Amino acid sequence: MKPTPSGELLYEYAEKILSLHQESHMALQKQEIKTISIGTIETLVIYCLPRILEQFKEQYPDVLIRIIPDCEENIIRRVNDKEIDFGFILDSPCIVPEIESLSIQKERMAVVVPFNHLFENREAITLNDLENQSLLLTEKGCTYRAFLLEKLKKHGVPYNVSMELSSVETIKKAVQNEWGIGFLPDYTIAHDDPVKAIHFANEEFDFYRQLIYKKEKTNQKVFNLFISLFNE
To answer: What range(s) does the LysR substrate-binding domain occupy (predicted)?
Structure first.
């Protein structure tokens, strides 16, 4: 069967389109990436990112890493608007159209108390135990702070936010000084810290360490390597 002249012309155009698509895909693969921007929160920068960045720099020492501190809500928006390449967040599962979310690990939350506190020898506590305790919390905009206060309101537990502090280490120091009790991710408390982490008996805090990014980021070899390091 011999194609018509119009059919031959259409076939030529189809070949050109396919060739252009392949060329553009190869160009994207070869495009030089000079900077990776990561929106994240303080606790993840201090306790979780160093190993990953060290491994990445071993293979791409000339790529500049820009760490952009922000709250989870803003990080998700900025990834979606392509203002930053990646978001590394601690939050409930991120479900946003056109954003890929790599769930890395579920994280436990803990109440942080000084060693001579009345909770010191408790294996676990409940939300009711926090009634009228002096709470030393992170600033507004922090997802786990908001989640805790919402839980307390929902259960009708009176609470007292005594201080708002911007640094995890400052919160731990304030707890050590017996100014109140904190609420932090369990991974921020080391065995040799002069404070103690106590978990909740029956409460589920669905917080996951997650890497979020736009799907087109996987077209780049550099970005693919960066994403893969979070799976190790």
So the answer is: 31-230
> What percentage of the chain carries pLDDT values higher than 90?
75
Going by pLDDT thresholds of 50, 70 and 90, the confidence category of residue 32 is confident
Short-list 79, 75, 87, 84, CA closest to 209:
87
Domain count, the chain: 2
Q: Would the pLDDT of 174 be above 70?
A: yes
Same domain, 122 and 188: yes
Residues 6+ apart with CB under 8 A from 55: 229, 232
Which is it for the CA torsion 172, 176, 182, 187, positive or negative?
A: positive
**How many residues in the chain?**
232
Residue 146: CA atoms inside 13 Å, Cβ hemisphere, count?
Answer: 11
**Residue 183 CA to chain centroid, in angstroms?**
17
Would you place residue 29 in the very low, low, confident or very high pLDDT band (cuts 50, 70, 90)?
Answer: very low
Backbone CA torsion sign across 177, 178, 182, 187: positive
Domain that holds residue 118: 109-204
Return the bridge partners of 209, or none. Answer: 90, 105
- Token representation of residue 186: 């369990």
Angle (nearest 5°) at CA 191 between 164 and 39: 50
- Answer whether residue 21 is part of any domain: no
Closest by Cα among 75, 110, 65, 111 to 210: 75
**Residue 1 structure tokens:** 């069967």
Residue 88's domain is classified under what CATH number? 3.40.190.10
